[in-house]
Amino acid sequence: MDTLIAWILRAIPFGTIIMYGAMGEIITEKSGNLNLGVPGIMYLGGFAGFASAYLYENSVANPNMVFCAALAIVCAFLAAMAGGLIYSFLTISLRANQNVTGLALTTFGMGVANFFGVYILNGSTASQSLVYKTFQTKIPVLSGLGVPGQILFGYGFMVYAAIVLAIVLHVFLNRTRTGLNLRAIGENPATADADGISVTRYKYLATCLGAGISGLGGLYYVLDYNQGIWATTGQIEALGWLAVALVIFTTWKPLNAIWGSYLFGTLYWLYQFLPTLMGFSVPGYVTDLIQMVPYVVTIIVLVVTSLRKKRENQPPASLGLAYFREER
Amino acid sequence: MQNAIELRHITKTFGRVVANHDVSLDVRRGEILSVLGENGSGKTTLMNMIAGIYYPDSGEIYVNGQLAEIRSPKDAYALGIGMVHQHFKLIDVFTACENIALVLDKREKYDLKAIRKKAQAICEKYAFDIDLDQKVYEMSVSQKQTLEIIKMLYRGAEILILDEPTAVLTPQETEKLFAVMRNMRADGKSILIITHKLHEVLSISDRVAILRKGEYAGTVETQGATEAMLTELMVGKKVELNIERPEPINPHLRLSVHNLSVTNAEGVRVLDQLSFEVFSGEILGIAGISGNGQKELLEAIAGLQATEPHSSVVYYPDDDRDSTAEQLIGKNPKAIRDMGVHLSFVPEDRLGMGLVGSMDMVDNMMLKSYGAGHSPIADRKAPRHLAEEIREELAVVTPSIHTPVSRLSGGNVQKVLVGREIAASPSVLMTAYAVRGLDINTSYTIYHLLNEQKKRGVAIIYVGEDLDVLIDLCDRILVLCGGRNNGIVDGRKTTKEEVGLLMTRLQNKGGVA
């Protein structure tokens, strides 16, 4: 029982990281842009959030908890948006190949974050610092209500914000004119253009805001999941790719990202908890294989959805294609 | 009464091609005006200028008596002009309602229920038959077209342009469309309809405006007009071309097509039980309005197109002896090629099929010869010689045979393509639009090449657009209409009017008038 609880307590925060990454990427891909720079963008977000909080705490006499957290979030969002802006400019305005640009952005984001991480922070950690406390504060009272309280309310606020955001994005995409226009652009930009929708503006905004949301995943990883320690292990990259896989798994629907991300989290930690639960031991070299399960599940989903051919579950029709108006 | 649209001296050129020259015509309020003309006569271009897709080089457009500047589709909508294109501009995964919502003014509240109600009212008013909650990808072509028209009406269009709306419809669906069009006319809307089908022109329109080779050839009242009269206005008087036409020598059956049917991705039957024969030493012309199955026919013979069951294409390599006859359906394109059946298809973008634009002439020759010989290293010498030969014999204008073919002019690209296919000494040569966009001299070079092949006993299938050329070059002409064999005429005896009528009107079919 304890193992099961520990498993859930590990899977949900883990899932939250990739949920942010995936939600941002869903918005981006709905505009027809396939941004493979998610890992790099999560690095940028994580680094900017961490660095801003760290510098603020160390330069002010009486740092304010809420302000510190807000500052970290805003900085993470802006830094990640800057990554999205680079991508947008290259692919929308200059019509560079989306795959290549995205992959380059991943390398770029990792490099920038790690370089400045070493240069500015110089190996220091912010463990036990104020900002970590803010991020990992559980819901008072409710989280103390035994096992259910622990499982349902025993996380920092970013976990709940992610669920709210997923619902907001669902409503935005399916119930608003802007959402309708955005989906139209991802499906058929020429039609949207003919109907007087500004394709370029929508693509820019969706890609940049999407990147900002993805960046929050990196922030959550550093300031909550990783206990406020600047990560240099490269795990953010692995998480970024999981987020991209999750987008496909959700069939581009934000609501599916909620349970999908928790499922991915559960599957990812399979190697540690399942053997204990079942009472057998697994040699260390097999764990890497088991960590692959989320990807295998994604491939199965891909195969199943393409076999079923349900149009609603297919990627946006113009995903990955640059749009330019034909001669008129 | 004021005219809805007046065009005055409209001219539009694309590069060196004149699409419209000094066209002036009027559209009255509350009338259905047919715009009639052959392929490439500039109908769609003219309509696109009214709809804001193109902007005229010179001339004026008056809408409701006011000089109008229509620079974009948005400007056209603002003036109450809506166009339904041949390729629908719809989002497949959206419902009909959501598609309508896309066109709405930003100030209007986003409320799908209200939109649905208003759209429903339009449907009832004009008797449109459509489910507004259906997803577009589940709709038939006719339903998609209906949705496009509703979209335009929702926007408040008073003038509707329909670009070949009936090309994709069954006769029943066409009747339905016409009924709706009459309802709209009764409501005071002006409708411009582009169509090739003369009987439709006569049954639906009030007046007919005719374009010929980009120029305005006149407008006639439909009442009192006959098909023969319209055909003559459309095709013009016969032009003397003096293309050489040797008599076929010792013709033998080479290709026997029987019951060939092809259904395209949209589920439309583009070829319908087509049967005909091709003989060695003759040129069989294929005439028809574009999109009546020409492309599918050639591709089916070349093995590039899936066919319906019971289709048969039998090839007689050894004159008409049955013992060596081969069924081509079911064989792969390479096997068919190796047997001597060659296709040189010049698609709209010229390079799309046959040549690789970024490769030079030599490499493009190699595309067909890389498999020759047994060495693992491809032979580059023979293709280089061939490239040199084609360049000299066909006078291909290029800096070098190592220049990427995409940098060559269209005519030169076509020479390379046709030259290469001829060099493989085929026994059946299929060409489509071989002279499209070529100047007169180059065209004659190509005709000459084809005649050379004909004298060598090659069976040639020539898909062409220009009726004058077809009649002067071909021994027999197969006319396609709606994917069917609408008659085979003798090129030496037929007239332009006869072929023109066959192209536009299905024979042996009751109910069309």
Q: Descriptors for this entry?
A:
heterodimer; A: 328 residues; mainly alpha; ABC transporter involved in vitamin B12 uptake, BtuC; 15 helices; B: 513 residues; alpha/beta; Rossmann fold; 3 domains; six-stranded mixed sheet; 16 helices; 20 strands; 32% helix; globular; disordered C terminus
Summarize the SSE layout with pairings.
The complex is a heterodimer of chains A (328) and B (513).
Chain A: H1 2-30, H2 38-59, H3 65-93, H4 98-121, H5 130-136, H6 146-153, H7 157-175, H8 177-187, H9 189-194, H10 199-225, H11 235-249, H12 254-268, H13 270-278, H14 284-290, H15 293-308
Chain B: E1 3-14, E2 17-28, E3 32-36, H1 43-50, E4 58-63, E5 66-68, H2 73-78, E6 81-84, H3 96-101, H4 112-126, H5 141-154, E7 159-163, H6 171-186, E8 190-194, H7 198-204, E9 207-212, E10 215-221, H8 227-235, E11 253-263, E12 269-279, E13 283-287, H9 294-302, E14 312-315, E15 326-327, H10 333-338, E16 341-345, H11 361-369, H12 381-393, H13 410-423, E17 428-432, H14 440-455, E18 459-463, H15 467-473, E19 476-481, E20 484-490, H16 496-504
Parallel strand pairs in B: 3-8, 3-9, 6-7, 7-8, 13-18, 13-19, 16-17, 17-18
Antiparallel strand pairs in B: 1-2, 1-4, 4-5, 9-10, 11-12, 11-14, 14-15, 19-20
Q: What features would you describe in this structure?
A:
The complex is a heterodimer of chains A (328) and B (513). With 328 residues, chain A is an all-alpha fold. Chain A has a single domain (2-313), classed as ABC transporter involved in vitamin B12 uptake, BtuC (Orthogonal Bundle). Chain A contains 15 helices and no strands. Chain A has helices at 2-30, 38-59, 65-93, 98-121, 130-136, 146-153, 157-175, 177-187, 189-194, 199-225, 235-249, 254-268, 270-278, 284-290, 293-308. The longest helix of chain A has 29 residues, at 2-30. The model of chain A has no long low-confidence stretch (mean pLDDT 88). Chain B has 513 residues and is an alpha/beta fold. In chain B, α4 (112-126) packs across α5 and α13 (410-423) runs parallel beside α14. Chain B has 3 domains: 3-235, Rossmann fold (3-Layer(aba) Sandwich), CATH 3.40.50.300; 239-340 and 427-513, Rossmann fold (3-Layer(aba) Sandwich); 352-425, no CATH class. Chain B has helices at residues 43-50, 73-78, 96-101, 112-126, 141-154, 171-186, 198-204, 227-235, 294-302, 333-338, 361-369, 381-393, 410-423, 440-455, 467-473, 496-504; strands at residues 3-14, 17-28, 32-36, 58-63, 66-68, 81-84, 159-163, 190-194, 207-212, 215-221, 253-263, 269-279, 283-287, 312-315, 326-327, 341-345, 428-432, 459-463, 476-481, 484-490. Chain B has 16 helices and 20 strands. The chains are: A mainly alpha (328), B alpha/beta (513). The A-B interface holds A 176-177, 180-181, 183-184, 187-188, 190-192, 194-197, 311-312, 314, 317, 328 and B 53-55, 72-74, 77, 89-94, 98, 101-104, 106, 110, 135, 137.
